[in-house]
Amino acid sequence: MSGLGDEAAVGGQCSVHVPRSGRKLLLERAWEATVVEQQERELPRVGRFPAVQPGQPAIERLAPTSELVGYRGPTACAAAGITYRQLDYWARTGLLEPSVRSAYAASAQRLYSFRDILLLKIVKRLLDAGVSLQNIRVAVAHLQSAEVADLAGLTLMCDGATVYECTSPQQVVDLLKGGQGVFGIAVGVVWQDLEATLGRLHAERTDTGETLIGHDPGDELAQRRNRAG
Questions:
Q1: Could you give the CA distance from residue 217 to residue 166 in angstroms, rounded to a whole number?
Q2: Measured between alpha carbons, how far is 82 from 63 in angstroms, rounded to an integer?
């Protein structure tokens, strides 16, 4: 007996008595585990949309209207029904710039908020109705100064030249009686449609830069049917 306590381990050897080949294998496994752990830490974080951060409860899910959610230019175009050329021109001329991140940031893409894209959709409708850019600029500036929660209750009436803001059904009726309202835009309806659309498209967290994957129930249903077939 050596008197060092090596024999106290029942049915095994201490690390001093592990053969050299065994020690090399143990070192290789330890090194591989360290590399895998480091790679896992460096993997980009990709979340579902609405997003749930790792370790956080479901109450932290983000809605498309959240201030923590932004949308890149191509997504904004798809949701608003406009071309990228229009988006770029309106941003460069100051008609409607992205409020989350402008193109002036170094090596950064534009990032639009929910309100930005809501206004993009409204601008598109006003243009289609023949409203001048000058009047559209006035309308956009007014809508940007309003509280986001108040936008859903507005109705914009237009006679082809002037845009009127109505906050009640009676105001809409009064404009129609006076012959001033040719068509109207119920902002609340546009809001609901946009919220559903953006929920199916990719987004980005404004605080962490995490990619949020859109959730399209139609795609999931198609995948299930394909698996069943």
A1: 35
A2: 23
